[in-house]
Amino acid sequence: MLEPCEGKPSCTVLRGEGGSNTADLPDQILENKQKFISQIMTSKSPVRACEDVDEAALTYAEVKALATGNPYIKEKMDLDIQVSKLKLMKGNHTSQKYRLEDDILKRYPQQIATLKERISGMEADIQTAKANLPADKEQFFMKVGDKAYTDKKEAGAALVEMCKETKTVNVPATVGEYAGFKMAVSFDSFNHKFVMNLKGQLSHNLEIGSDPLGNIARINHALESMPKQLAEAQTKLETVERQLETAKVEVTKPFAQEAELAEKLERLSALNALLNMDEKGDDALGMDDAPEEENEGQETSGHDRAVDKPLAKKICI
Q: Are 164 and 215 in contact (CB under 8 A)?
């Protein structure tokens, strides 16, 4: 809108900080984008990972290097990316080292102690079963409640009746004894089924159904499967012990790229000093361009002072 100014038509023109009335250029947008990427690519704890680097930001680095005519800027920005990745790798290595230390001090010893206790209990229960189970599989003896049974079907039916009379939920109730193991039954309200617990040195659980002979078969199978479970526990114990020894070796290994990281950090420091950049990575021209820039600044100082004046002014036509 035209306004009178000293008797002549005029209009108000708004200018940016540098005297330009244009919007942010694409390279400025890319620079801001790169700043956000740099915040993610940090080596501070907790470790963060960002595998992809924006191609547009790299293109901006190349354009910026060409615009200034200084190849050190591109080298510095490439080094920044490489150093960030190496720091992430070092952070991951450090985190893994801490996990291994926890495994060595806590997790593996606890697993070994638990497995040894299970193996000891399993060996005792196997001996109990061998001592009480008859050599002839046709022979049978089970105590259900206060009554002893020598017939498998009758004993199985008595177990089913005992389960029906059980009113406790998720609380085992003793119903009898078989082969030196106490039998306790509880109702699993979550899965809606009866569960029997054969109690020796360890507890051996199995499901109780409505088939009398099927229940006896399940009980015998639980006792007969103990040697297999013992072998599995022994194998797992050997595996955990090997993992413990491996962890003790791995925890002493240093970061493999430590020398490369130190070399790149040293070169990056040299470039920062050469380019006269501060810690935030503000861009500056090389030392060779400083005198020319200073001369240009003296020649245009009057113009700069004019630009630094208020952002909005009236231009007379």
A: no
Higher-confidence residue of 98 and 163: namely 98
Computed over its alpha carbons, how large is the radius of gyration of the chain?
40
- CA nearest to 275, candidates 288, 264, 257: 288
141: its two tokens: 């003896």
Sequence-ordered alpha helix ranges (H) in the chain: 26-40, 55-68, 71-102, 108-132, 152-165, 212-224, 226-250, 258-275, 290-299, 301-307
Answer yes or no: are the C-beta atoms of 194 and 187 closer than 8 Å: yes
Decide if 19 contacts 309 (C-beta within 8 A).
no
Tens-place pLDDT, residues 122-159: 999 999 999 998 888 888 999 998 899 999 999 999 99
The answer, yes or no, to whether residue 245 has pLDDT greater than 80, is yes
Backbone dihedral angles phi then psi of residue 181, each to the nearest 5 degrees: -115, 135
Residue by residue, DSSP assigns 81-121 as HHHHHHHHHHHHHHHHHHHHHHIIIIIHHHHHHHHHHHHHH
Q: 211 in helix, strand or coil?
A: coil
How do residues 157-167 score in pLDDT, each as one tens digit? 999 998 888 76
For the question of whether the overall pTM of this predicted structure is more than 0.70, the answer is no
